[in-house]
Write a structure and sequence with these properties.
Elements (H helix, E strand, L loop, with lengths): L1 H11 L16 H11 L3 H14 L4 H14 L2 H11 L5 H14 L15 H14 L16 E6 L4 H13 L7 E6 L4 H6 L7 E5 L5 E5 L5 H9 L3
Parallel strand pairs: 1-2
Antiparallel strand pairs: 1-3, 3-4
Amino acid sequence: MKTTKTIKALIVTTTALAFTAIQGAYAAPNFNQAVADYNAGRYSQAAAQFESVKAAYPTNGLNRYYLALCHQALGHLEQARQEYQYVATTNDARLKALAMQGMQKLGGARASATPGYNPNPAAVAAANAAMAAMKNGQTGSSTNPNVMPVKKIYKFTAPWCASCQRFAPIFEAVKPKFNDITFQEIDADSNPDLKAQFQVSSIPRLVFFDANNKVIYNGGTPTTADGFTRLIQRYK
C-alpha cells in the first residue's frame, strides 16, 4: 500500500533527529509512553499522548512530527498536514525538510488507516537518543521567536463531554491570571462552522490567537491549572 510505504520512509528518517536541539518535552512521562504506543501500532493512544505533550510543550518540533506521523497512520490527513505545516516553521533545518517531505507525500495518500503497519525501530532509537541528550543538558529553547503574544483563547467544549467538565474548573481558575487575554467558551455542537474552521476533531480543545487573529496554537488541554498557566506563558 502506498500510504504504508510513505509512512515507513518518513519514520526511517527520524534517526537523524537524535542530534536535534532537544527541548524539555522529552522529560515528560507521557512522551515515553507515546513513543511506546506508536511503535506498538497503537496510533490512537499515541496520538492522545503526543497531544498531551503538545499542550505542555507546544513548540516542540519532534513531538509534533511524531504526532503528524500518528495522524497519517490513522488516515487523518488534514490533521497530519496541520502538524507538518507547523513543523515546517521551526528553526531546525532537518525537521523542516522532513515536514516538507511529509506534506508532499500527503498529496498522494488516501484518508484511510494503515492496518498491520509496523514502524521501524529507528523511531524509538531517535527518541531515546533525544532524551539522553536532554539529560546531558543539550537542550534548546522551547519558545518560537516568530510567534506573537496570545490575545484570545477559544475553548471548544460540550455539556456531554466528561473531559470538558474536568477541564472547566482549570479554565476558570487560570482566566483571572491573564487580564490582557480574552477567554471564550465555544459549544462545539452549537458551532459546527467554527469547529470545522479550526479542524476540531476532539474536545476539549484550545485555540490561541494573536492580536491579528492568527492561530498560534491549536491543541489539547493540560490536566492541571499550573500546566495551563505554563502553556499560556509560552505564548506571552
